[in-house]
Amino acid sequence: MSFSLASYAASCGVPDPEGFAALSRQLREIIVETNRTMNLTRITEPEEFAVKHVADSIAIAREFPFLTSEYTKIADIGCGAGFPSLVLALAFPNLRLTAIDSTGKKAAFVERAAKELGLKNVRVIHGRSCELNRRPEIRHQFDVVTARAVAPAPVIYLDACDFIKRKSGRFILYKTPQQAAEDLPALEIACRKLPVLWHATEPFELPENAGQRLFLYSTPR
């Protein structure tokens, strides 16, 4: 394996890169085993998994380094197989992850995987964000809302706009440059009367020529 996940993790500010890499391998094993009876992801080959799922998930900390050390409550919408929620919880003990998925089997998998990995900083909610958005225990509770490979940004934001804390909360969404080019004009229209502005980070290359990534993020207007 030419790609060193531990080295990349260190560059992202992960406090225990070697331990994180070992736990990420354990996560892959859990997913491979579960894939025999449930389709979680087709990306299971060790290096491809490390790059396209794990490194991609922790790249957010390079762009937003406060995530490496500050106590931060994050909601991960459409958590799927646990990317980025499980990976971020493994990487940064200071984070408190709420993994949300509308598919019960996926939510149950993330909950089971978190227990097998010994994670104490993950909770799982089975539900749709547009419905959870109205619940008192969810409204204005999160510092960050994120989502990866889920839906267009305007849909994510409008479905979950009340998840974030008033004034200080923000959305940080994983996107490709092409997706961002499509989402930003739609966000400007959808949010033109709302108290939020949207921005894009500079694109960057994932390791091993695995493609480009950037983040769309919100700030108060």
Per CATH, the superfamily of the domain at 67-220 is: Vaccinia Virus protein VP39
**Proportion of residues in helical segments:** 25-40%
Q: Indicate the radius of gyration in whole angstroms.
A: 16 Å
Describe the sheet with the most strands.
8 strands, mixed
What sort of overall outline do the alpha carbons produce when their principal axes are compared?
A: globular
In the CATH hierarchy, what is the class of the domain at 67-220? Answer: Alpha Beta
- Secondary-structure content class: alpha/beta
Average pLDDT score: 96
Question: Per CATH, what is the topology of the domain at 67-220?
Answer: Rossmann fold
How would you explain this protein's 3D organization?
It is built from nine helices and eight strands. Helix 1 (5-11) packs across helix 2 (17-34). Strands 1, 2, 3, 4, 5, 6, 7 and 8 form an eight-stranded mixed β-sheet that branches. It starts with a helix and ends with a strand. It has helices at residues 5-11, 17-34, 46-58, 60-63, 85-91, 104-116, 129-132, 153-160, 177-190, and strands spanning 72-77, 95-101, 122-126, 144-148, 170-175, 196-200, 204-205, 212-220. The chain has 221 residues and is α/β, with parallel strands linked by helices.
Topology:
Layout: H1 5-11, H2 17-34, H3 46-58, H4 60-63, E1 72-77, H5 85-91, E2 95-101, H6 104-116, E3 122-126, H7 129-132, E4 144-148, H8 153-160, E5 170-175, H9 177-190, E6 196-200, E7 204-205, E8 212-220
Parallel strand pairs: 1-2, 1-4, 2-3, 4-5
Antiparallel strand pairs: 5-8, 6-8, 7-8
Helix pairs in contact: 1-2
Protein name: Ribosomal RNA small subunit methyltransferase G
Function: Specifically methylates the N7 position of a guanine in 16S rRNA.
Binding site for S-adenosyl-L-methionine: 78, 83, 101-103, 148
